[in-house]
Amino acid sequence: MKKLFILALLWVIINPLYALSVSNLFSSNMVLQQNTFVTIWGWGKTGETIKVHPSWGDELSTTVDQNSNWKVRIKTPPGGYRSYDISIQSDTESIELRNVVMGEVWLAVGQTNITSTFEEYVHKPKEVFERASYPNIRMMTVHPKEKGYVHEDISGNWELCSQAVLDKWSELGYYFALNITEKLNVPIGVVVQDWGDEPIDSWHEEEILEQELANQDKDHPEAQPFTFHQYDIHHHALMYQYRDYKFTGILWSHGKDQPNKKGDYKKQMNTLIHHMRQQFGKIPFYYVQIAPYKYKKMTHGAVVRDHQRQLLHIDKTAMVVTSDISDIHDLHSKNKDEIGIRLAKIALKKHYRVMENELVESPQLTKVVKEGKKLFVYYEHSKGLHFEDGDQGDFEVSGEDHEFHIVKAKVHRGVVVLELGKIKKPKFVRFGWNSRAVPLLVNDSGLPASCFSKQEILNKNNKAL
C-alpha cells in the first residue's frame, strides 16, 4: 500500500488539477441512476468553492479539499425520456453537462467477451443497424490504463446509440440494454470494460488478496495456491475509479483462460463478489458461465464451470449457461446477442419483478436421491425438462471401485432418472464432466443445465448414504 500511496500522491502533484474538472464517468449524454442519491466528483484548486446545479433540483456547494478533490451527493428524479443539464462552477471556471437522462445503469466487466463489438463479426445483423437509433440506450466503453498503478479517473465517454457508433459497441451490452428498456420504458446505461486475459485474483484489492493469502487453508497442501499478482493489481487501475458510482447491478464475464491457470476459482470469485458488494452495496451480480472448449486438460474447463455453478447460493446472483450456443474451437463465441438477451431476462425477472411467469434460468441441480436401483436427480427451473436430440450419455455414477461409469438416463415429470445397472453401492454422480462436453439437458425455455461433479447421493429421507 505504501507504493500505491506514493503513486497517488505523485498523481496529484503532476496532474493539472488546479483547473476545474469532473470525472469522465460524468459527461454529456450520460444516464444517472434514477430515484436515488448519486455522488458526482472531480478536482479543482484547494479551498475553492464548487457549485453544482442540476436542472431538476437545487444548487449544491462544496469546497475543494487539500488533495484537490471535491464531491457532492445529488437526489435524482424518476427515470424517463426527459433530458436534463448539470452546471458545475468554480470561482473562475464552469463545466456544462448536457442531455442527461435518468434510468438504470449497469456495470459490465470481465474479459474480452464482455466487450466484443459488432465490428468483429463478418456477418453483421443488418436489421440491427437499420434500426440502430435508440437515443435512450447509452453506453460508455472504458479504455484500460496501465495496470499496477492508481488511476484517479477513467478514459471514456458516454455515447447515444446510433449507426455511427454501434459498430464499436459491446454486442452483449447492447442486447442487454435493448431488452431492458423495451420492458421498463426508461433509459438504460451500460458502462463496459474488460482487461484482457488476466486472472481473476488481479481484480481484487491488494488488502483483500493479502488477507486471502494469510487465511489460506494449510491443511490442504494439494490444492492449487491462491495466487497474488503483485504487479497486476487491476483494482487500482480499474475498480477504484468507480469508487462512489451508483450502479443498479453488475454483469460479469470471466474465466475463459482460467482452466490453463492456477488458483481456486470458486474461492477467488466468491471473494470478488464480496469485495464488489463492499464497494457498491448488495446489488445484483449476474455472470456468464464459461463455454465448453478444447482445453489442453480434459476436465479443467468443467472444473471452472462447476466452480461458477456452486456460487449460485449467494443472494442476488444468477448464471447464464452457454453450452448450447458455444463453439468448442473458439474461445470468443459469436453468440453475444443471445447471452445479452439471457442476462436481460434474468434481470427483468429477478431484479425488476417483471416477466415473473417466464422461465429465464437454466435447470439448477438441487439433490440426488437413491430409491431402489435408481437415482433421481432433482432440479429447480425444471419445467419441461428434456434431453435435446435424444442426448442422454452425459450422466456418470461412481461405485465402490471409485470409477465413474456412464449410466442410462431419462426424464420423468421434471426429474432425471438414472438406471444403476450393475453399480450396487453408488457414491457420487457427475454430469457433463469434460471440458468439451455439450450436454443438452434443457427446460421449456431451451436453457441447458450446467455440468456438475461428485454430487453426494441421499436416501429417500434426504440423509447421506
From TrEMBL:
Pfam families per record: SASA
Lineage: Bacteria, Pseudomonadati, Bacteroidota, Cytophagia, Cytophagales
PANTHER family: SIALATE O-ACETYLESTERASE
Superkingdom as given in the UniProt entry: Bacteria
Signal peptide: none
Annotated protein name in UniProt: Sialate O-acetylesterase
GO-annotated molecular function: sialate O-acetylesterase activity
Keyword set, alphabetical order: Hydrolase
Biological process, per Gene Ontology: carbohydrate metabolic process
Xref: InterPro entries: SASA, SGNH_hydro_sf, SIAE
Keyword Ribosomal protein: no
Domain Sialate O-acetylesterase residues, every copy: 104-348
